[in-house]
Protein 1
Amino acid sequence: MFYCERHTPGSGFYASTSVGFTCDQIDRCSICWGNGQSCCTCNDNSVCTVDSCDPNSIDQKCNFAPISCDDKNQCTADTCDAVDGCQHRDTSTQCNLADQCYNYGCSKDSGCWSQKKGGCDSDICTKRTCNPTNGGCTEVDACPKNVACQEYVGCSLSGGCQYKPIDCSNPVDCGWGYCNKTSNNCAKGTYTPQDCKGCNSTTCFPQDNCKIAFCDANGNCQHADKCVSPSPCLVSSCNLTTGQCSTESACPSADDICQPRTCRVSGSAAVCSDTINPCDDGNDCTIDTCTVVNGTASCENVLRNSLDPCIVLTCVNKTIVPVNFTCPNDDKCQDVQCVANVGCVAKNVTVPDYGNKCIITDCDSQIGIFNTSYPCYPSDRCRCDPKDGCQCQPLSIGAIAGISAGVVAGAVVGGVAGAAVLGMAGKKGFDYLQAGSISSGGIQNNPLYEDNINAHANPLADD
């Protein structure tokens, strides 16, 4: 066998042999089994292509395959210049929108992103809105001023909107007074002596600092809570020691920056709801975490990971898509599977037992399970039975004499028998026989062979 590698169009090789030297495929460059590239002169003078010749063309046919300039960066536009090669133009400025209430940027993995600016968040006392034109905040007092029969005192972040009842008491004898919730004005008057029933500021007084007392139109002493909530979304309370009223939100939040809550009135009840996480990037592929830093929201958006080694999480259009992991396997004698929460586990494949003594079954890491016929010799009188193995017919007297001659020329007989084994069983049969089952060169493979009692000396030979 000869092997020649041509390095230049002018190189050559000469060999003289009696063996027939043929080539059943010559390329257009006159190279045996060549790919047509050794004499290729294609060149488009561009670094943006890979130049080659079509190996199937008789005349030179050029192929100019474009190279990839993809830098895997969503913030660049990728092009190729014939002289300078790949160009990556920054496109992150296109992420800046007109709404000044948001911060904008570009991520090389996901492209443009936006995040609402902090510092313009509402609280229990003030409603703030952001102006998209200049990013400035507009503030409006959150506490209603026209609460029936209540006088607005002020607001604090700890206590909320503060009110005190309008004093409509009438200290005169037989006087009465109350607040009209429709007109928000005090109504006062006096009873006639016969109708007075003795209800006045002396006999009708509050039971504690958090109650008010008044005489109704019928002269009866009435008591009511001093601190009344103006809205179901506000909870009023009273300090028994000082009589001071305070209000707080009916939908309190432990964190007004990262976990704000809103309240709406439904009938006479307060309905609380959580507002959108200020750090929500709108991407289901990330875990969004909000932390309060110096009174503002600090955001962290981290990609989700799979806890199962057999599941690979991929992000498609901002949505998590789980994909089953395929274990690599280069050994056809092993079955490799991915076990949930464990990983790749390899097991040996089962080599089948056909119960046929004429077939050798084994497994090779490259080709897998294979079968090889078991040889029986001599082949002219021996056959293999699937159940009992090799079965040979008795030799005739002449055949036995031939075997004796074979003993003398044992090397020749053994060599021929070994060649027959190799020819029938193939590569895998050879490996099997070479391992020790049948020696390819021994005359003892003859089923009728016996050791020579003359220590292998020819009894008919003269000294």
Protein 2
Amino acid sequence: MIRSMLQSTRVSAVALCLVLLVPVGAAANEIALPATGAGRAPADTRMGAGSTDIAAFADALVDVAQRTNSTVGAVAALGGIPGAGGVGRAALRPETMIEQPYMVLGDLFVGLPVELSAVPIGYAPPPGERMVLDARYLNDLAVEYGVPWEAPSRFVRAVVERRGYDIGRSHVLEALRDHLLEAGMSPNAEVDISALNIHATVGSPDQVRVEVRDLYYDSRAGRFSARVDVPSGGGSARTVRLTGSVHVAVDVPVLNRPLRSGMVVTEDDIGWDTMRQGDLRPDILLDPHDLIGKATRRGIQAGQPVRASQVTPPEMVSRNAPVTMTLETPFMTVTARGRALEDGAIGETVRVANLGSGTEVLAVVSGRNAVRVRTEPMPVATR
């Protein structure tokens, strides 16, 4: 008996839904559903454009009927006739945000009984879009459903906006990255795609999904192709064919301030930046110890990777500068004063003149204005 009543209730609700779908002149149900996009047929924006929304609309009517314990109760709620509960003076909501695919009276009016507030009245705008209802439509709606309200002027309007959740480039990249990792991509790699504008708006967070299909990944070339459904698992899904590349990211030491020619790089001058390995020149210095303590041959800008040819060991001995000469043997250590005949950095061999004897010898730079004389012959190092 109860099952028969529920089935009868659902049939009645569907019948009511179909009645609402019939365009009658300037009926409120038709005016409430303008086209929301260029080129979209008006029929697509009315209630009943999709079977899923019709079912949701009918289920909402059934829910009203069940809560009022009879189909007559649902009709009473629709018409505002006695039996739906006393209705006080209603007030208009100038703006409202909804998430469900259909509108109910409570989205437009406040101060209604619970049963009347939950009555579906039309198809909601697409996710992320809005619908403007004018005074004429609102008056017709109030009369049709027995809502005690009347527009005070023809300039009154209500705006209904459906909340939207965006799916964009970041979601696509995240989905592609997960599949590429399964295909053998390095965890340190970056993913780049050819498509510039990928966007969709859905009606709930659960629908923010991207499906990747037919992925082909060439690990040697660092290239891939795939088909992507945005959003996934829905009738409005759009399939996009993408191509892209995979780049291994490398941490590169860079200067965090500009340095002029001849300045020595210190540890405080070193910063880090992440760059694509394929974009780095072979002579880029990747070890910060190859930079610290070196002098710049010419000015270097901040934030740029440093090439080996841009730095050199700092000069510790200058030409014609006085130096301390040290001669070490297994039996003694002798020091003397000399004059450098050329510039030199630590470890380099330079010519030095002994001020006491006037003899020219070869010595290795060991510190600031200090050289160590070698007893064995050695060629002069070229810089």
Protein 3
Amino acid sequence: MKNPYLTSVGGPDQKDTHYFSGTGSKWDDQPLCDNEIEPYLRLTAAARRRRNSTNLQVGDFSPTHFHCLCCAASLRMANPSMKVVVLLRDPVARALSKFLELKQQRHLSSFYMDALEIYSYTFVSYVEAELAVMRRCSDTARRFRSSASPRSRLLAAAGRRPRGAAMPRGWGAGWDMGQWMEAQCYARSSILGWSMYDVFLENYAAQFGWRQMKVVYTHDLLTAPNDTLHAVEDFLGAPRARLHPNDKLDDLVNTRDCYSEACSRKRRQLRPYTEALGARAGGATALGDNALVDDLWDPAAAVAAGGAATASAAAASTGSSSSGASGGAAGTSPFGQAVAALRQLYAPHMQQLFTWADQGVIPQPPQAWRAAYADIGGSSTNGNGPGRRLQEGGGGGSSSKLRG
């Protein structure tokens, strides 16, 4: 932890408690939203005793709490004044990163059962199969949708929103059964579904209000790490950390080359995603495919790092953003077609983020996101809660350290 005034509820050796969410896997019997609260409060007190300080903010850094539909309500009951910080990455890059993580972590299958499920899949074949599952799931859920519920009208009357923004709705806070079911489709798909950021953001906003939430993008941490860190500290009300002048805040952990916090990497040391995937991509990849999905790899350092494949990918990525996935058109390779299908899937959800950003609810996302997730296939946001309709075409195919 860079800031001595911030610490984890689980202590220095347990940043992710998963206390209310479990692992977030669909293989978990159930979320732990009704987990006993007193031991959790004791963990908070223990964190303060370890530091022998009352001038300390204790946080929970479990990323699975974001996708857990009932966790926002549980956390709000535990602390209604809680401030929520969410770090978002390009949705296709996040999905690919999760796929590669589970492929690399098959030995942890007792904890991540998802790793066994995808054992026989390539990225291309998994996208094709999982998109079909998600479409069936969301189509079923939509049959249970209803008009605005009395609960949502009551919340709207309370006025807990910035001017111009629609009243957020969520689990136990305005969703009807169809919206709940559709959100479950995404919450139980850790690779593809967890990139439906608008659904999970709105769920938390429905409990805490937008003013108690701060959205940060990986692009911010890559391009202006100190400014981003200070902005988060200011939002939390914590004194700013005094960093060593040589601390560039540029370590990446749990990367594509070494999924462990014990072997951090610099951006210049990363291989391109397509090179790291190898045969797991699912067929030959074109030279430009890496630029479609890689928001961490630094093409400027590729030639210096060496390797023919790396240099070729660097040449193919010329003209793309080095700090965000390219907004260019997806390629014609099987991998490129899978990326195109995912962009189409995420487009309406991303457009909801753009709407919120234009309303001043969240910060403006990286410009590359707008280029990549523009009006694809006629998709649009309709303001009807989670799961702005999945697109039918193209289916063939909270730490200062980033994951690569």
Protein 4
Amino acid sequence: MHFTFYLLVTLLGVGTTASATCFTTAGPASFKACCPTPQSSGKGTISGVVFKYTCGQFFNGGESPISASSVKECAEECQKTPHCNSASWSAKQKCSLLGEKYPAPMKVGSWLTLQKTAEEPDPEQDCKELVDAAKREAESKCTTEKDRLQREGETQCRTEKDTALTNANTQCQKDKDTALTNANAQCQKDKDAALANANSQCAAEKDKLRAEADTDAQQAQSQCTTEKDQLRQQADTVRTQCQSEKDTALTNSNSQCTTEKDQLRQQLADAARQRDTERDGLQKQLKDAQDKAGASGGGITDSASAQDSACINNSWNSLCSGSCGHDTFTVGGVEFKRKCNVSTRDGREEQWYDRSSVMDCVRECAGIKACLGVGWIASQGVKGHCHAHMTVSGRLRTTPSRGHPLNEHHLIYVPTRASVW
């Protein structure tokens, strides 16, 4: 079982035997994960090699620092470098490699040291960390999926409610129309039957009276007339009652229909307000997107100084060689100021490569709100290399740089984003 765990950790290339998140936390946050206190220390495994780390220390005499975003990345650089046995890494994402196995450390609070050891990895502990990391990732995916399903369910629910309301209203109107038609037909049928029965009864009685005696004709005639009058009155009563019932049914139907129409109008008004609210939200998102697109420089003309051939031709050298007579440039709608022969610090540097000119770096910086400015060295610039100063405290500190012109440091920065001194 131990061999299987060790093989899994070796194939995945990373494990920890100390802090639960030291060698698995990405970016600058890994420093705090490794060093919750200035005296923290521990061990972690990189590609089957156990590294010991100690917080608050720095190994002097190492190679020039290279960029490493985390403790894990610095340890990986040392592991794949044949002559490396030790290294130092800072919270500012710098990594310095050493060939010595046991160099003398210096106490520096913002650094930690790494040393290769001959220890065997602890596969069970490393596997536990991998399992914990997989559980965190699974929980995150589960939360995302639940949120998506909830949104889809709410949308489906609204759709089904709207459909049910429409169907109910349609069926209600259909039922009312059918009931009114049936009531009118039944009323007419009842009236016809009543009149037919009355006429039949009258004729039978009249025939009987004639058969009994002609002498009783007057009496029979009188009686018939009386009965006919009564029948006519009954028919009139029936017609009046039927008309009253029809009028009452129609009035009730109209009242119910009016109520339902008012309810539908209210629902339509609510839906219209909801639609207007959603439309206003979408229009605001569109405007924000357009504002963001505008801030990135799209459709904005650069200033004349940023188009001066004396400044932009071979800008790695010309911007600070004396041939460019401008100190202020507007690129992508953002104003920049030039400051030559100075080294810059207090910002987080990003190394940019394969840029065609300083103005290419400046244009890219203009579109990134966190970018305070761009620095360059002429001898590196001809290889397309510049470095962007990203915001940390919103200020940049400069010191004079004196040396060969091709090795001088220069700066072009955004005054509205950074204070420079």
